[in-house]
Amino acid sequence: MKLTDLDETILTDVIKPRPQESYKGTFGKILLVGGNHQFGGAIMMATAAAVYSGTGLVTVACDPTNITALHTQLPEAMAIDFTDKAALTGMIKRVNTVVVGPGLGEEAASLRVLKNVFAATMADQTVVIDGSAITLLAREGLALPAGHLVFTPHQMEWQRLSEIEIKHQTPEANKAAQEKLGGIVVVKRHHSEIYTPTGDWRLPIGSAAQAVGGMGDTLAGLVGGFTAQFRDDRVKAVLAATYAHSAVADQLAEDQYVVLPHQISQALPAFMKKVSESGHGHQIGFNHEN
Amino acid sequence: MKLTDLDETILTDVIKPRPQESYKGTFGKILLVGGNHQFGGAIMMATAAAVYSGTGLVTVACDPTNITALHTQLPEAMAIDFTDKAALTGMIKRVNTVVVGPGLGEEAASLRVLKNVFAATMADQTVVIDGSAITLLAREGLALPAGHLVFTPHQMEWQRLSEIEIKHQTPEANKAAQEKLGGIVVVKRHHSEIYTPTGDWRLPIGSAAQAVGGMGDTLAGLVGGFTAQFRDDRVKAVLAATYAHSAVADQLAEDQYVVLPHQISQALPAFMKKVSESGHGHQIGFNHEN
Amino acid sequence: MKLTDLDETILTDVIKPRPQESYKGTFGKILLVGGNHQFGGAIMMATAAAVYSGTGLVTVACDPTNITALHTQLPEAMAIDFTDKAALTGMIKRVNTVVVGPGLGEEAASLRVLKNVFAATMADQTVVIDGSAITLLAREGLALPAGHLVFTPHQMEWQRLSEIEIKHQTPEANKAAQEKLGGIVVVKRHHSEIYTPTGDWRLPIGSAAQAVGGMGDTLAGLVGGFTAQFRDDRVKAVLAATYAHSAVADQLAEDQYVVLPHQISQALPAFMKKVSESGHGHQIGFNHEN
Amino acid sequence: MKLTDLDETILTDVIKPRPQESYKGTFGKILLVGGNHQFGGAIMMATAAAVYSGTGLVTVACDPTNITALHTQLPEAMAIDFTDKAALTGMIKRVNTVVVGPGLGEEAASLRVLKNVFAATMADQTVVIDGSAITLLAREGLALPAGHLVFTPHQMEWQRLSEIEIKHQTPEANKAAQEKLGGIVVVKRHHSEIYTPTGDWRLPIGSAAQAVGGMGDTLAGLVGGFTAQFRDDRVKAVLAATYAHSAVADQLAEDQYVVLPHQISQALPAFMKKVSESGHGHQIGFNHEN
User: Fold this and answer.
1) Interior CA angle at B205 toward B203 and B208, to 5°?
2) D208: which chain C residues are within 8 Å (Cβ-Cβ)?
3) Which of these, A63, A214, A290, C121, has the minimum number of CB atoms within 10 Å of its CB?
4) What does the pLDDT read at residue C290?
5) Is residue B191 a contact partner of residue B206, using CB atoms and an 8 Å limit?
6) Neighbours of A288 (CB within 10 A)
């Protein structure tokens, strides 16, 4: 089985000029759930990707100790206490996409939050399951929640969820596991792989400059932001987010030994503008012309 | 009924070179009230607009949990606890403009704060009523406070306040509602509309790049900053703030798919400098020459 | 009586290339005391000026609620609780310059802090008395502390301290009051005036772009930073700080309608570098060539 | 005894293009321990150097009051409470390098943390001992911990540890003390000296622009980041970190009177990129060509 290499036409396919007659609801609503007492930075990085990609309304549910840091860097995001079940459930009802996992942690409190999220999602929502949410899901054998699911595990998390050891994570084995699981699976690795009901892909770009903590949280937030905002085709939105994440990183890596996650988010508005002006189906040559 | 299109001469009409003999009081004092435990970012964004537009003294009354984030990003702003009625009332007595609503919330505590503000404003002040303050005002049927009132609702808030459904918000209906209400009304939408006792206007600029959360908070803060600072003609100050807000956004949108609210505020000092040097009544052509 | 106009030769006179053989103690130690629960931004702005001007070691004593915001923006500064008398007194013993007043407030707790500072300063230190410390000093009739005193009042604070009404604040009256008081007095106003035991000066530069809250806090911090770092001649250090503060602002005001205090501090390292390379006594023409 | 002058070939020797097939674990894991209630900025500055130098995973153990400031500036770093012995010990088991000391303080609580760190380190780890950890080690006569030790004292801390007065800190005396102590010793001073089991070096670059508080914390963090990431040769990693720290500062000092520690860290990704593209053994002439 051979995966198809994604190319940059996925960007112009998804990121189009915004319709003039619009308001913030037009561009989606997202809730990101994560950020326990220890991993507050993870939810900040995921949220930055959602905000800078242009999601209309962004709310975060996290440990309250993280709200000051979040608001300082991202005043555009609203925040609630992730242990407040009523607030959490109420907010889930109002969004297009829920992202759960970045910095959620794996302790008892994390599990309670995850269960509350899983109990509240709805069939027509996109639910991105990332990081410790994947680990908890596998460890606790939880039933999958309602919604269109997108899993964004790194290889070890994928091993826990699929029970395929890293060395046996071939496209065939991964595809079989994704079909059994349902939904979309993004296996985050050097040249990430994306398994979907309508095709299976390999990301041919990206570099070792991205191999730093928080990079995966940023991707989860971007997948969330794109599925909330570009709602015509969920698979394409996930593919475009994955491609854009590494395309921006590759641009930054031309001048940097390492690329920090927050730098990718901050570069999104200019990157997406160029894409939106390139027109459908054109090669835009980011890696060569910039 | 036809609204008159605003043009950029409103900017040079209002934003003039500062008089040399002056001190910070010359440029006005403002109090912004909002920012509950969940919406701290909203009051930060409104305050940023007031600070970067050059208001002489800026104070914020908010939930104390937001003060650290506020001071980190905006050390120029002073802060008080919005539940401290004596401090709140005392501060209102010392300012030219009060802005109430950004991130205030709609719970019981929010209402208490709003009532305290409404009880304390004075006839010669500008009082900008925004966001959840409009919703509370409509829901609770509060009497209007003393002061020169400026309402800055988005269309749904305007529906609540005017009882005109969005689909029936024609200029005629809006004008009638503004005349009944008194004061100035800025209906925030794609091509915002501004109804005033001395004329009614339509904003012909702005784009979908602005359709993100916090954009309205920033406009409310800027209307506050301009009315505090440019006190010769309140209507013109409101018109200039509304125009400047979208003119800056349009500049940024030339290179960005989305424009974040805090970016507009940070661009104000350079934008206002160019305006102030252009001279009264001149076309300054921001959208063409930059 | 005519005040002498300061000119930019004061900059090259004071800001010289740093000696190669040096360590951080070479460039002075400063303690800044202020920042109550309401005015945390003021002590941050004063501290920024001290840090960016190159003071070797910078410590802040403030209300503990301000420490997170301070560390976020200025990790170079150390922080103690200003109500911890032992820590405060101990720190005063270890510094060259104490700045007291920015955002200190005027309540009972502020007065206790001020009294603790005044009881601990030493004859060979520079003590900069600013803002609410001046108001408290005047209101409470406190005895002056030990040390080489520098007062940095704005005109209303100067009225309280000197008992000269603003309209009667002529050079003659100001000079007489400074002589009675002792030390150096910087009357902050449009074209600030500096009264010293060895001459009296007027600042001919600066503009209304500086007329925003926090500008005076920044000047107090810069006077502190310069007196701690440039210890050959205290009067010249104060004059150079006052001149540099407005010279940097004038540069920024070429492109900005208003200049925010934190922007002045951040521009200091580049500004001081240019000065240090210009050589003693040369006209460096910042306002024309930049 | 004559120390060998380090030259910039140490940079290309250590900082090489990253292997494509890699993940964040490839680039090391680091734990930084420090930052008490007073010195939170110190641990932030050390951590910034570790993050911006590209360490794969960065965790901080500090006083919990510092976590908000840390996450605001460095969301990439994870954080634990340094008084939580189980969490601290558990984290030490999972990293390549432990840095202990920046802003740790010298009180009883600091000592408890230090003892917990010393009890948990392992023989195959790099342990960087800096700042107050050195002072406590000397004062309390603690036994040295397991691990490959790197000491980064300034001259006064070196006096405390080696019992050699500053005026007697000759290369001969320093070398004898390093041999007795074991490990690597970086004596931070104007032209720092690095004593190692395989050679002794003098840093010929750097300037008085670096003589500000926090510079040593940044170096400790960078030594940590390099030893965690470049694990082929510990001595070379320490030498390269020391050289890079001052080489970046020298670049910045071309345009700045003082260089702030956080500016060095933020400049690392671009600096390291240039080095990595220069190729092994080449002179890269940073000080001349930039």
Assistant:
1) 115
2) 18-20, 22, 26
3) A290
4) 31
5) yes
6) 7
User: What's the CA dihedral at D270, D272, D274, D279 to 10 degrees?
Assistant: -170
Which one of A71, A81, A83 makes the best mutation probe of the B interface by having the most chain B beta carbons within 10 Å?
A71
For the A4-283 domain, the top CATH level (class) is alpha beta
Give A264→chain D minimum CA distance, Å. Answer: 13
Domain layout of chain D by residue ranges: 4-283
Mark yes or no for CB contact B38/A272 under 8 Å: no
E strands, A86-174, in order: 97-100, 126-130, 148-152
Report how far residue C190's alpha carbon sits from residue C185's, in angstroms, rounded to the nearest whole number. Answer: 15
User: Chains that contact D by 3+ CB pairs under 8 Å?
Assistant: A, C
Residues of D within 8 A of C71 (CB-CB) are 40-41, 44, 66, 69
| Nearest-angstrom CA–CA distance, D286 and C264 | 29
Tokens of B72: 């980190």
- Average pLDDT along chain C: 95
What residues of chain D lie within 8 A of the CB of A166, using their CB?
none
List % helix, strand, coil for chain D (3-state, nearest 5). 50, 15, 35
- For residue A29, the 8-state DSSP code is E
By Cβ distance, the residue of D69, D190, D256 closest to C20 is D190
The pairing of beta strand B199-202 with beta strand D193-196 = unpaired
Kindly give the confidence (pLDDT) of every residue in chain D, 290 residues in length, as a single tens digit, with 9 standing for 90 and above: 899 999 999 999 999 999 988 888 899 999 999 999 999 999 999 999 999 999 999 999 999 999 999 999 999 999 999 999 999 999 999 999 999 999 999 999 999 999 999 999 999 999 999 999 999 999 999 999 999 999 999 999 999 999 999 999 999 999 999 999 999 999 999 999 999 999 999 999 999 999 999 999 999 999 999 999 999 999 999 999 999 999 999 999 999 999 999 999 999 999 999 999 987 545 554 443 33
Burial class of residue D28 (count of CB atoms within 10 Å of its CB; 0-12, 13-18, 19+): buried
**Which two tokens mark A69?**
């840091």
How far apart, in whole angstroms, are the C-alpha atoms of residue B153 and residue B174?
Answer: 12
State the Cα–Cα distance between residues C182 and C200, nearest whole angstrom.
13
Which chain C residues contact residue B80 at CB under 8 A?
A: 38
Which residues neighbour B28 within 8 Å (Cβ) at sequence distance 6 or greater? Answer: B55, B56, B57, B95, B96, B97, B225, B227, B228, B229, B231
Tally of CB atoms within 10 A around A140: 12
Reported in sequence order, the residue ranges of B27-102 that DSSP labels E, i.e. its strands, are 29-33, 57-62, 78-81, 97-100
**How far, in whole angstroms, is CA D90 from its chain's centroid?**
22
| Nearest chain B residue to C66, by CA | B68
Q: What is the pLDDT of residues A215-225, one digit of tens each?
A: 999 999 999 99
Q: In what order do the strands lie in the sheet with C4-5?
A: C4-5, C199-202, C193-196, C184-187, C148-152, C126-130, C97-100, C29-33, C57-62, C78-81
CB B25 within 8 A of CB B56: yes
Residues of B with CB below 8 A from C154's CB?
A: 23
Residues 6+ apart with CB under 8 A from B215: A24, B249, B261, B264
Q: How many residues does chain A have?
A: 290
Name the residue among A20, A56, A67 with its Cβ closest to that of B190. A20
Q: Which residues of C touch B276 (CB under 8 A)?
A: 257
Of A88, A158, A161, A80, nearest to A121 (Cα)?
A88
Residue type, A119: A
Q: What are phi and psi of C72, to 5 degrees?
A: -60, -45
A278 to chain D nearest CA, in Å?
29
| pTM confidence score | 0.95
Helix (H, G, I), strand (E, B) or coil at C154: strand
**D226: which 2 tokens?**
């390099």
Q: Are C97 and C227 in contact (CB under 8 A)?
A: yes
* Residue of chain C nearest B82, judged by CA positions: C38
